[in-house]
Amino acid sequence: MSTPAAAAGPAPGGTSTTEPLVAYLLGLGDDALVLAQRLGEWITRAPQIEEDVALANIALDLLGQARVLLTRAGELEGAGRDEDALAFGRDERDFRNVCLVEIPNGDFAVTTARQLVFSAYQCELWSALRDSADPVLSGLAGKAVKEAAYHRDHATHWVLRLGDGTDEGHRRMQAGLDRVWPYVDELFAADDVAAHLAGVAVDPPSLRAPWSAYVEDVVARATLTVPSPTWHARGGRRGLHTEHLGHLLPEMQHLHRAHPGARW
Amino acid sequence: MHDDALSETRSESRSAPTAEAELERRFEAMIADEVRIEPRDWMPEGYRRTLVRQIAQHAHSEIIGMQPEGNWITRAPSLRRKAILIAKVQDEAGHGLYLYSAAETLGIDREDLLDLLHTGRQKYSSIFNYPTLTWADMGAIGWLVDGAAIMNQVPLCRCSYGPYGRAMVRICKEESFHQRQGFEILHTLSHGTPAQKAMAQDAVNRFWWPSLMMFGPPDAASTHSAQSAAWGIKRFGNDELRQRFVDMTVPQAQALGLTLPDPDLRWDERSGHWRFGAVDWDELDRVIRGDGPCNAQRVERRRTAHEDGAWVRDSAEAYAAKHADTTRATAAA
User: Fold this and answer.
1) Which chain B residues have a beta carbon less than 8 Å from that of A48?
2) What is the pLDDT of residue B225?
3) How confident is the model at residue B4 (pLDDT cuts 50, 70, 90)?
4) Where is the composition biased (Basic and acidic residues) (chain B) (predicted)?
5) Would you call B111 helix, strand, or coil by DSSP?
6) What pTM was computed for the model?
7) Which of A9, A78, A247, B35 has its CA 20 to 30 A from that of B89?
C-alpha cells in the first residue's frame, strides 16, 4: 500500500491523473446505487412486514454508500457533476456497476441469493479498503464494513431458513443460487482500473478466497449446492450490461431528466 | 414503574371473587382518575372490542399507507429525496408493527388482524385510497396527510389504554418529522421552476379535501364518538380537530405560496377561526365503502405480497422447528 493511485499515471486515453480513481469510485458507487434501486422495488411487496423494514434498511445503507462514492467521484473528476448529475444524467453505457446488481429481483430466494453473494463480497471489499490511501474511501469503508456485515448476516439467515426449511423453500433457494451464480465471477475479475490504483483500490481477485470460504460454508449448512454455471457475465465495469439496466435507469431518471436544472 | 406497581396490586385484588358491577365501577373510577388501563386489568368487553378495532385499523393504515409513497421510491428525483422517502416508508412499517403489538396485548393475533385487512372486513384510513400521480404528492402527503394524522394522534398519546398511548408517543415524534419533510418538498417545488410550482399546486388541490375527511364524519354523524370519549379513548370531536387542522394549515399554505382549493375559505375575526366550505361527505362514504380510486389496488397489493410470501414464512417456520433444540442449547450455553 505505498503508491497512491492518483500518482500512478493517466489511464489509457485519459486526460487526468485521477481518472482511474474516478472510474473505480463510479464502479463501486454504481454497484451500491443499482442494488439499492432493486431493493427499493421490494418495499410493500415483502413476505412479511419485518422484511419490508429490513430490505428498506439495506437499501438505505447502500444508497448512503453510493452517495459518498458518487460525490467523491464527481469532485475528483472536476467537471461539476454532483451525485445527482452522475446518478440521473448518465446512460447505461456509462454505468460501471457489475451485472449482478442489475438483475431483476425474481422471487425472495433470488433476491436473497443475490444479497448473500454481494454482501459477502462487500464485507471483504470494505474490510480491505479501510487501509486505502484515499481518505474518503477509507473513511467510508470503516462505516460500510459494519453495514455489509449486517447485510451478510441477514442474507445468511434467510439462505439457511429457506434452504433447510420446507421442500419448496429448498427448491426455490437452490434455483435462486443457480440464477445468481453466473454473475459471481465478474465480482472477482482482474480489472485494469483497480490495477492502476495500488494502495488505493483493492485487486478484485484477492477477495475471492475469503469470499468463497464464507459463502460455501453457508450454502453447505443450508443443505444446498454451490452451482457451476456454464456461462459468466462480464463487462459491467466497461459499461457493457445486461438488457435489464436499460429498463431500470429510465424509471429511476425520468423525473430528473424531464426538468433539466431543477432543484428538488 | 409506577404503572407496573399499580397493575400488580390490581391483579392481586382481582383474584378475590368480585361482582362484574364492582369491576366495572373500579374501571370507571380508574378512567375518571386518568389511571392508565393495562393489558392485565379487567376491562369491559365493549372497551376491548373498540380498542381492537381502532388500533388494528390504525395499524392497517400505516401498512397500506406505505403504498402511495412506496410508489415513488424508484422514481424520486434526487438521491437525497430517495433516501428520505425510503426512511419514511420504513418508519411507517415500524409504526404498523408497534400498533399490531399494542393490539395483540388485547388478546388478538396479528395474523388474524392481517386476515381481516386482506378480506376487507377491517378498514384503514380513507386517504390511502387516493393515487400518487406526481412527485409533488410526496410533499402534499407529508404536509397535509401527516399533518392531519398528527392532529388526530397527539391526543391519543394520553389515551386511557397504556400500550396504545405509549405507541403513539413514539409514532407522533416520527410523524412530525415527516410532516416537516413534506412541507420542505413543497417549499422547494413552489420556489422552483414554473412547472414545479404547478406540480405542487396540483398536488395540494387533489389532497386538500381528502385530508379534511381524515377527521371522520361530522360529530352529529359519528357513531363511536360518545362512548369513545367516555372511555378516555377519544378526547376531542371530529369537527374540533378538523377546525384546528384548518387553522394550523392555512398560514402554512400562505408561507408556501400555494392556495387551497376552497372558494369559501375566509378568516372569521369574531371567532378567531378560518371558516371553510362544505366537505363532500358522499365522497367519503363512497371511499370508505370501497369505491375510491385505489381501494381495490391497495388491498390487492397487500394480499399478493402476503400470498406470494407464504412459502417464505412456511420455510422459516419449518427451519425454526427443525432447529429448536440447537437454538435452545445455544441459548442455555
Assistant:
1) 309, 312-313
2) 81
3) very low
4) 1-13
5) helix
6) 0.93
7) A247
Residues of A in contact with B305 (CB under 8 A): 44-47
Tell me which DSSP letter residue A239 carries: T
CB A151 within 8 A of CB A86: no
Phi-psi region of B194 (alpha: psi -120 to 50; beta: other; left: phi over 0): alpha
Average pLDDT value for chain A: 94
**What are the strands, taking DSSP E only, across chain B?**
266-268, 273-275
Rounded to whole angstroms, the Cα distance separating A92 from B260 reads: 42
Which of A45, A59, A66 lies at the smallest CB-CB distance from B86? A59
Q: Cα separation of A24 and A7, whole Å?
A: 15
| Boundaries of domain holding B106 | 26-278
Please check whether residue B206 lies inside any domain of the structure.
yes
Write the pLDDT tens digit of every residue in B245-261. 999 999 999 999 999 99
Distance CA A250, CA A91 (A): 9
What CA–CA distance (Å, rounded) separates B184 from B143? 9
Return the CATH architecture of domain A16-258: Up-down Bundle (1.20)
CATH code for the domain of B137: 1.20.1260.10
For chain B, the domain total comes to: 1
Do the Cβ atoms of A63 and B79 come closer than 8 Å? Answer: yes
Task: With H, G, I as helix, E, B as strand and everything else as coil, classify residue B267.
Answer: strand
List the domain boundaries for chain A. 16-258
Strand, coil or helix: B275:
strand
Inter-axis angle of helices A108-129 and A208-221, nearest 10: 150
- What are B266-324's pLDDT values in tens digits? 999 999 999 999 999 999 999 999 999 999 999 999 999 999 999 999 999 999 999 98
Tell me whether residue B99 is in a domain. Answer: yes
The string over B195-226, giving b where at least 16 C-beta atoms fall within 10 Å of a residue's C-beta and e elsewhere, is: ebbebbbbbbebbbbbbbbbbbbeeeebeebe
Mutation target for A interface from B311, B313, B317, B323: give the one with most A CBs within 10 A.
Answer: B311
Nearest to B192 among A57, A252, A262 (CB): A262
DSSP code for B294: S
CB contact under 8 A, A165 and B315: yes
Cα B140 to Cα B179: distance, rounded to the nearest angstrom: 9
- Paired with B275 in beta bridges are B266
